[in-house]
């Protein structure tokens, strides 16, 4: 039985780092529109009603944090703390309906409890990054213990993926977004990319699905793009996702998929 104690301390004010990269210029999309019997190409600005090419966006190969830059209108979905029964599968179904991919930052003890679900997420083509073994606040424990928890988390995910002959992506997210410069350095030396969110859905607070969706959309309209922090352990998040994707689609956003770049794995050192 997994120790799920960490779930009870999830209600922690998370600070989200503002993205320091400036986004490339806006991406208006174009479509052929009928004008009096003849077809003309018309540009539709983002966030305006009109036909759009669907939610599926670019796939970005990520070797370092420099590769995490998004253009205006681009969104990355990230789901932390799972996998967990029911919710994770419901999220997979919703993502499949829109043919879009996400990144799941899984906790080792959850992977040990539900290894088949880890494989289901991987088999559906989503990216799996690690999020420690025990979801401790790494900024509050000594560096060696923190490194061990990171390693153990990765090892649990690798074990679950053995039958698929797949590897966990060299992507990491700090629990509670609580980092230290030393740990960031260690991870960078191993070729592990820390993927911080730029939009916090705050789905760990008691909210209705609509409130979560509105919070995300408000932040997104302001920023223009973003890496969204979500949690597949919450039922409200799974219930909210169809409406979020419908809104993103209607407003012309696209969902970008982060995958490991060709250099990411080769940079991995044998240990810390
Ligand atoms: Zn977490």
From TrEMBL:
Coiled coil: none annotated. CDD domains: CE4_NodB_like_6s_7s. It comes from the Bacteria. Residues 73-256 form the NodB homology domain. Keywords: Hydrolase, Metal-binding, Signal. PANTHER family: CHITIN DEACETYLASE 1-RELATED (PTHR10587:SF133), GLYCOSYL TRANSFERASE-RELATED (PTHR10587). Belongs to the polysaccharide deacetylase family. This is Chitooligosaccharide deacetylase.
């Amino acid at each position: 039985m997994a120790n799920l104690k960490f779930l009870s301390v999830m209600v922690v004010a998370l600070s989200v780092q503002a993205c320091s990269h400036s986004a490339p210029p806006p991406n208006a999309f174009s479509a052929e529109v009928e004008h009096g019997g003849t077809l003309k190409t018309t540009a539709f600005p983002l966030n305006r009603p009109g036909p759009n090419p669907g939610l599926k966006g670019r796939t970005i190969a990520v070797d370092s944090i420099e590769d995490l830059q998004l253009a205006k209108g681009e969104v990355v979905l990230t789901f932390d703390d799972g996998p967990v029964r029911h919710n994770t599968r419901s999220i997979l179904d919703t993502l499949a309906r829109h043919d879009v991919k996400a990144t799941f930052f899984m906790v080792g003890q959850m992977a040990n409890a539900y290894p088949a679900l880890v494989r289901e997420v991987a088999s559906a083509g989503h990216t799996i990054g690690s999020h420690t073994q025990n979801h401790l606040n790494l900024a509050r424990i000594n560096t060696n213990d923190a490194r061990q928890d990171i390693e153990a988390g990765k090892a649990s995910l690798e074990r679950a993926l053995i039958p698929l002959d797949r590897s966990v992506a060299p992507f990491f997210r700090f629990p509670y977004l609580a980092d230290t410069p030393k740990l960031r350095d260690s991870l960078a030396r191993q070729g592990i990319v820390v993927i911080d969110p730029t939009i916090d859905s705050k789905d760990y607070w008691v909210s209705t699905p609509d409130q979560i969706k509105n919070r995300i959309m408000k932040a997104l309209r302001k920023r223009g793009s973003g890496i969204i922090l979500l949690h597949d352990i919450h039922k409200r998040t799974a219930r909210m996702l169809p409406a979020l994707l419908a809104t993103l689609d209607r407003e012309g956003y696209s969902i970008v998929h982060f995958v490991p770049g060709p250099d990411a794995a080769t940079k991995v050192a044998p240990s810390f």
